[in-house]
Amino acid sequence: MQAKFKNSVSLPLKNVKINDGFWSKYIDLVRDVVLPYQWDALNDRIPGADPSHAIKNFKIAAGMEQGEFYGMVFQDSDVAKWLEAVAYSLETHPDSELEKTADGVIDIIEKAQQKDGYLDTYFIIKEPENRWTNLCECHELYCAGHMIEAAVAYYEATGKKKLLNVACKLADHIDSVFGPEIGKKRGYPGHQEIELALVKLYHATDEEKYLKLGKYFIDERGNKPYYFDIEWEKRGRISNWTGRISNRPSKNSEYNQTHLPVREQSAAVGHAVRAVYMYSGMADVAAETGDAELLNACRRLWNNIVSKRMYITGGIGSQAYGEAFSFDYDLPNDTVYAETCASVGLMFFANRMMHIEPKGIYADVMERALYNIIISAMSRDGKRFFYVNPLEVVPEACKKNQTKFHVKPERQKWFGCACCPPNIARLLTSLGYYIYSKNDSTIYINLYVGGEVETELNGSKIKISEDTQYPWDGKIIMKISLKEEKDFDLALRVPGWCSNASVNVNGKNIQLYSKIVDGYATISRTWKDGDTIELLFTMPALRVRANPKVREDMGKVAVQRGPVVYCLEEADNGANLHEIILPKESQLRVEFDNDLLGGIPVIAAEAERVNNNWGDQLYRANTSAEVYKENIKFIPYFAWANRGTGEMTVWVNEK
Amino acid sequence: MQAKFKNSVSLPLKNVKINDGFWSKYIDLVRDVVLPYQWDALNDRIPGADPSHAIKNFKIAAGMEQGEFYGMVFQDSDVAKWLEAVAYSLETHPDSELEKTADGVIDIIEKAQQKDGYLDTYFIIKEPENRWTNLCECHELYCAGHMIEAAVAYYEATGKKKLLNVACKLADHIDSVFGPEIGKKRGYPGHQEIELALVKLYHATDEEKYLKLGKYFIDERGNKPYYFDIEWEKRGRISNWTGRISNRPSKNSEYNQTHLPVREQSAAVGHAVRAVYMYSGMADVAAETGDAELLNACRRLWNNIVSKRMYITGGIGSQAYGEAFSFDYDLPNDTVYAETCASVGLMFFANRMMHIEPKGIYADVMERALYNIIISAMSRDGKRFFYVNPLEVVPEACKKNQTKFHVKPERQKWFGCACCPPNIARLLTSLGYYIYSKNDSTIYINLYVGGEVETELNGSKIKISEDTQYPWDGKIIMKISLKEEKDFDLALRVPGWCSNASVNVNGKNIQLYSKIVDGYATISRTWKDGDTIELLFTMPALRVRANPKVREDMGKVAVQRGPVVYCLEEADNGANLHEIILPKESQLRVEFDNDLLGGIPVIAAEAERVNNNWGDQLYRANTSAEVYKENIKFIPYFAWANRGTGEMTVWVNEK
Q: Nearest 5°: phi and psi at B51?
């Protein structure tokens, strides 16, 4: 079957070589530190960190060890996400030792799989009789989805089929249990993930049944009668989490996006990670099947997020309660959730939409999430992580006002619920998927990352090398290598933040004005070997303001340069950052700080600070606050929390 | 024993006649509607409201009815607080029917009291074997405190001793169980209240043992070894609330102010109602015993509240979690708690401090709480109440962002936990206690309320009548009635909000400048019958700003006139109140609104509104927001939420 709504596809990871001043060190860090560290964590070898027990669970399920299940009901997914990241890493950077380790884990997983294909260590070990009885709470389909994603990635990286066979057997088992056919359960996952995984499995195997099963889960979700209520009644209304009578699931159906059939949904609600994983699966199914109604739902939901429910950093999820979206324009900076995993999922969704329709906004949002949330969430040593990504932090508030207890002013070690670190790992190791895409006539450059890509267009091999200091500099030099001349379109994304772009081809300026459509400048020509493209995005420091409907940002300004959002930190500007006022006429000067994280551009400005020397007066009538001049310094948001615990703010008062 | 640190005392309620354009209708409302309504509620006769069962619990405990205990573990206190309010009402406004009803309740209470003096219907009915085993959670001493307060008030109002005898028997029983003596428990209440009640009982009976017992509870609190941990271990670590193993109480010792011996406390922490009830008891004990260390602790705690932890409305408690204080200058307007009861308790504390030392700040704070929180918290029909008193409300946020779920945009009916309505009732019926105070040489006028007071100074009868439109007008006319000439000081409080006060005595202006000390203008003279004092406090609309350390109020202004804080409401100004900007130079015009709540002064101003017509743009670079002019209207904060559900804000953006 031919995908119906796909304009372009990603290039295989092995064809994308990243050699970039900015990104290579992150990818190396994941390979050299994060993956080994996570391997230690999965094996409970990190002193002082919560135990994971994830590998042990598989060994116990496989009959290789004795013991009890330990961990979250979705503990298996940590292993799967690690394996998926390992696979991406192996695809671009073979490593026989690491591959041997992964093969060893896969052997255990294979042994743990039950004869009928079932695979979930929680139920295998603890409640074999209760398989598939509590989809709402128990994450079996979620874990299956991650295992399938790992299997496809590992197969594509190594050509080895063992885990892919496990995944197919598991998917076949699931197919035998769930579906619209008589005798099957009309269930769907409590935490979406398997939908997009099944579309990957369909691509890897060419077996349409997997696409059909993925589509079923999308189609069935939110129908009446309400499945989660039915299974809740059947199990005596008992919660798996507490062992006691729980609320009727339909009372909280927005949480897992089961409040409406997905085609009728318009607003991003509920648990943000569940939401964007589901939207990604919806986009996949729409693309493959040509389901216009489903695609329109994706567009509506996308639009709702990016025009009403997304932080300037690319964070989503405005509240800790339910790790969830709240309502339009509700973007509190201090009580925010903005889970790292949610921004990873937003990138999944964006990438899929970008493949369906080439609009710059999709890559703009990917950039926001990538250059701000994703790399902020991981420490410079790859061992500590942010789960919550606040835009305003006062350390005392994180300890003393419960609305901010979930906000941590410092990155944390591997958690009991370790969802975010492996998600960062699998995203960064597969970064190549997001940079380029192509169709029969066009090569798209979506993100600007130094390196080299090789691909084929109608039988012609094309190589493009890219050299850039992005995101610190807006100049990108590309060189085309070809065996023979070739007509094709090169679609260069012009970032949404850029108001002044120019392109030279072989030194000659190309008039861009008429060529930019939907955020891409398309250059159609007969390309020759050695053609050189010089792209220049003027990159001044920008004052960004939020839509006035965003209550929390009223009267405030954020500073952004290129895709990088900046912030003020106590280390540079003292405490009480809210007392700083940036006058509208004050110039933003880009300066280079040699000491910060090995040297990065910072932004300096002359500002005012309100004199807070009021003594014991808490309220005062008819006297304006005095101000004095002060020099302030903005650093990239992703660089915050590397110099001790202190205040941080992205939005700064303006006058 | 002579009180050691008392500068002045309240006058008996029966000597203070309130006849005031502003207050009389509230007091009448309490008498005519609130008390009967609460009586119905206590007897479960309010359709649609949560059942109270409070009277029934007493009947069951008295053996008059069969049944089970129902309600909160402190349900008894609702009856006690109602009785106390009834007593105050009877003292100024005799009503034989109401007195008969109260006598009937007292008969039941007397029957419910156990032979040894014990009285708490929860334990009498449900767990007689577990009396006094869980002070931390179970409110026995709290309920006892309220019963004692009711008994003293009823005795003072009616001269009847039945309930006073019950209270003495109960206090004697408590005295036999708790204390520093060998064989007694070294316990103290989980919810403070009995301390101040025991000092009242001491005054009513002249029995020093009650003062001693109250002092013991103050002295013992927060000592090591930690009593709540000890009793928790003894009862097998089980929580009364959940029936399951609970956290070690010392982990949460700030919640009930047991983290330190009270004399070492400097910051107002934990549950705000517990805190101010305790500080009131501390002030009582310090005043009676001359304990300078204890008084200094009271001063420190007072100062911490009013200079760092109090909303402009007189609300205290910055977070819903634990209904608690958070930290210095943390005064979020939208996630606020500011429980009504906490402001009632703050008035208790202020009144006691005012009697210890005559400083205007105490009455200033009483005024803040009284004219803003207290009367705002009750609906105009006396049947609905605010428990939480926000300074900024967006109704959608109250439903969709959990940090604001506790904030209600509309007053609520009688709750399951009905602490606030009877607290308002007992405060308003005893308002006379707060208006005047005296010592041998001075009569203090602390609040300006129309009416008449009669008192004696060294054997001379003095009557002062007062006529005023306060708080809408700053003119107060007082007339002195005397049998014979009398030398005494009249100390007139000059409110903290007033920057221009003048006084005429018999039409002759008195030079005030040198006479105002600590917020009181003291006029010493030989007063004659018929002397007339005309006080004039200039009362313009003020722009009030918060200390710059208050993050949430930075760049914002509040409007206050006299003691009344104003707010913007959606009904007058449309939604998105945060988009309104009040220029510094814009004039605040006091206007009279005939339609609002029977006619009250409102404040009009010309402001700007930010144009929010940004379409789908969520963030925008380098373009300032457009603004257009708009007339805005402020109404008194206490008058909000009377015209449908909508937004409200006290703090308004300023430029």
A: -65, 150
